[in-house]
Recover the amino acids of this structure.
């Protein structure tokens, strides 16, 4: 199937209803727990491949700028142990030394809210515009 999906229009053509179902799910998945319905950027309009590729290129450019420490605020650290040619590169040993100086984190027992155990079935009976 992947070789047939080149842009967002292909999704609707090859898998009718998937985009609408996906939007519905993201709009209402928190609603049964008392939270408001989600709203979407771009008035809920699906964006095409060119838009997605531009977001990826722009994000990568911002990341490279961050790793070069260009225009980074004083309260932001770019320390890392993976990008060797970056401004904030630390060896694994240097990173370990920094971590060993930190106070031990208190043990926490994860709290699983009861609402995560709820199951809610939503049958779509109204058009998209009514849910907006």
């Amino acid at each position: 199937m992947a070789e047939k999906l080149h842009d967002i229009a292909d999704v609707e053509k090859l898998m009718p209803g998937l985009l609408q179902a996906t939007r519905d799910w993201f709009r209402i998945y928190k609603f049964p727990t008392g939270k408001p319905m989600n709203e979407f950027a771009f008035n809920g309009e699906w964006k095409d491949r060119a838009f997605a590729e531009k977001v990826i290129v722009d994000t990568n450019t911002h990341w490279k700028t961050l790793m070069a420490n260009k225009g980074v605020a004083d309260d932001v650290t770019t320390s890392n142990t993976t990008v060797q040619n970056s401004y904030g590169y630390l060896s694994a040993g240097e990173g370990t030394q920094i971590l060993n100086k930190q106070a031990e984190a208190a043990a926490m027992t994860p709290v699983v809210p009861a609402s995560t155990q709820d199951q809610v079935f939503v049958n779509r009976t109204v058009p998209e515009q009514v849910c907006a």
User: Anything to note?
Assistant: Residues 37 and 88 are 41 Å apart (CA to CA). The first helix runs from residue 8 to 14. The helical segments are 8-14, 18-28, 49-67, 92-100, 128-131.
